[in-house]
Amino acid sequence: MTRYKVTVVVDGDTSASGSERARLYGLKAAGDNHWQSKPLVWFATKEYASRTRIEWNSQCWIYIAKARHDKEPLTSYSPHELLYGEQFVAESESGSGKKETYGDVSHMAVVNDAGKDLRTGLAGQISVADISLEHAPYCENPLTSHATTTLRAVEKILLTVSQSPDDAKIKKGTVVDSGLSPGVLIDASASGEEKKVHFDENTGSWSWPEGATWATAVKRGDNLTSRLIEKW
Fold first, then answer.
1. N or C: which end of the chain has fewer CB within 10 A?
2. Are 156 and 186 in contact (CB under 8 A)?
3. 35: burial class by Cβ within 10 Å (0-12, 13-18, 19+)?
4. Residue 11's pLDDT is what?
5. DSSP letter for each residue of 13-39
6. 85 φ, ψ to 5°?
7. In angstroms, rounded to a whole number, what is the distance separating the alpha carbons of residues 40 and 136?
8. What whole-number distance in Å separates Cα of residue 166 and Cα of residue 180?
């Protein structure tokens, strides 16, 4: 199992990190072939300091949830560990089902055999500032009855810090398809140097080592779906 680590160094006055105006958000990329798939907020926390370590591993989980009928965060779901070359056949809205072999060992699949529309996607456990968080979804795929979708993990993470009271109210599990405050997209799977980025609380800007190809700037208002949901 591969482990991934990103370090965030906060420059300037860190006293604001406990306020409603300064919440650290993380969104994770995913390979999802459904045309309506969207990224979800993977984690949101005020518990960050001058140097914060973010870690996760390559273990893959899918989740099953009821179809969306509103814009509320996804809070009720059933996670299932799944391997590449396996598919999960969902037999109910509650997430019961069975695992079967899937013919493509480079992907996982979810089959909706529940007789109702569902939501599915990838989920994962993450540790932020040495605090382990629960398995949380990071992409959302509306899966109609009797449909099949294929998924794969992409080890990229987008980090941003809220710069307004409205941004700070956004919760984990919320669909966010356009950039909030400026952020940085990090390819944690890239080989080479330590993945360390700096956030300046005084200017609200991000920086990383000059010439690093594993980091990309994300502007407020950028299309996050195209950045975080990879198709094939």
1. N
2. yes
3. exposed
4. 87
5. -GGGGGSTT--EEEEEEEEE--TT-EE
6. 85, 10
7. 9
8. 10
Question: What was the pLDDT predicted at 18?
Answer: 47
69's CB contacts (< 8 A; 6+ apart) are none
Per-residue model confidence (pLDDT) at position 142: 95
The first and second tokens of residue 225, run together, are 């779906």
Q: What is the pLDDT of residue 217?
A: 97
Q: Which residues lie across from 203 on neighbouring strands? A: none
CA distances from 38 to 31, 77, 156 (A): 11, 16, 15
Task: Answer for the pair 207, 198: CB distance below 8 angstroms, yes or no.
Answer: yes
- Residue partners of 47: CB distance under 8 A and separation at least 6: 128, 129, 131
In degrees rounded to 5, what are phi and psi of residue 146?
70, 10
Radius of gyration for the alpha carbons in the chain, expressed in angstroms and rounded = 18
Task: Write the single-letter amino acid at 131.
Answer: I
As averages over each run of 10 residues, the pLDDT of the chain (232 residues) reads 95 55 89 93 91 95 93 94 98 97 97 97 94 90 96 97 87 92 96 93 94 95 96 83
Residue 193, token pair as written in the block: 């140097």
Q: pTM to 2 decimals?
A: 0.93
Give residue 77's pLDDT: 96
